[in-house]
Write a structure and sequence with these properties.
Blueprint (H helix, E strand, L loop, with lengths): L9 H19 L3 E4 L2 H10 L3 E4 L18 E7 L6 H19 L2 E7 L5 H9 L3 E3 L5 H10 L2 E5 L4 H7 L6 H8 L2 E5 L5 H8 L4 E3 L5 H10 L3 H14 L2 H17 L1
Parallel strand pairs: 1-2, 3-4, 3-6, 4-5, 6-7, 7-8
């Protein structure tokens, strides 16, 4: 991030200095700057005089889920890295799921699709009864799992060093999750753009304190979250539509050519 101030040593500082010089030069020669989310739009609008345009990552071309709900089963899905201390949050979700299943007798599981090979992380996931490590699968296979799961899990680390590095980033998983129309369980600290984007649009069940996970799991078992799921679909169509985004890009480029 252009305006960030990291304290990671002299060589990293030198690299950031060169990065900023290059960005400043490129922006000075431009009339429009494209960014990937609202947080970056706000920051760069204060930094540069050029027009800042948000061009969100597109959602995949899939139809929202339309399947019968199983009241006695809660199948959750997480696809992606468990690094950057996400394992702490994933493990907390697994513990909450395990306790819920033991208390209610309902079959509940968080399927994790990840190619993680670190033996310590693998053991932590396999030791938790609320988690099921399914390994790495293809992108299309993962999309099928996302569509078929009742709840899609997105997590962000609560560690300060990772908050600083991710607070203005919108996860590329978010557009995929929104497009399915399934409930998104988003667990992460306040101020992270991935969390706040979903919160602003009421498109997910947000948990910004891991201590609230048991309550969240109970709510998932009892409530339909129909409004949040519909909001997710609407948000996908509004901000992450591939055709609309291409038209926006084409329009801006045409304006630049004409001027």
């Amino acid at each position: 991030f252009y305006n960030e101030r990291y304290n990671d040593g002299i060589w990293y500082t030198a690299r950031i200095y060169q990065f900023r010089r290059s960005v400043k030069k490129a922006v000075a020669a431009s009339t429009t700057v494209f960014v990937l989310n609202d947080a970056l739009n706000q920051e760069y609008s204060k930094t540069f005089p050029q027009r800042i345009v948000t061009l969100f990552n597109p959602s995949p071309a899939i139809e929202p889920a339309n399947k019968a709900e199983d009241a006695d089963e809660i199948v959750m899905c997480y696809g992606g890295s468990v690094g950057q201390d996400r394992i702490e949050v994933i493990e907390a979700i697994g513990v909450a799921i395990q306790k819920f299943s033991e208390k209610t007798g309902k079959k509940s599981i968080l399927n994790i699709f990840s190619g993680e090979s670190d033996p310590v992380l693998v053991k932590r996931m396999t030791d938790c009864k609320g988690l099921c490590l399914r390994g790495r699968i293809s992108e299309q296979e993962l999309m099928n799992e996302l569509v078929q799961s009742k709840v899609l899990v997105h997590v962000e680390s609560f560690e300060e060093k990772y908050i600083e590095k991710t607070k203005r980033a919108l996860s590329t998983k978010i557009p995929e999750y929104l497009a399915t129309g399934n409930l998104i369980l988003c667990v992460g600290p306040k101020g992270i753009e991935s969390v706040e984007y979903l919160r602003r649009n009421n498109a997910a069940l947000i948990v910004d304190d891991p201590a609230d996970l048991p309550t969240a799991i109970n709510r998932i078992a009892k409530e339909s979250f129909a409004q949040e799921r519909q909001n997710a679909i609407n948000l996908s169509r509004k901000n992450h539509n591939r055709r609309t985004n291409c038209q926006l890009l084409y329009s801006v480029l045409n304006e630049a050519i004409d001027t």
